[in-house]
Amino acid sequence: MMPSAYQYILQQLKNQKISLTEIAQLAINYQGLYSQVPEIETTEELLKKIIQQPQVEENLLVCFALENSTISEPLATIYQSENVTNSLLLQIAATFGTIGISNYFEIKLNHPELIHLSNNPKITDLALSLAAALSGELAQMDS
Question: pTM of this prediction?
Answer without folding.
Answer: 0.87
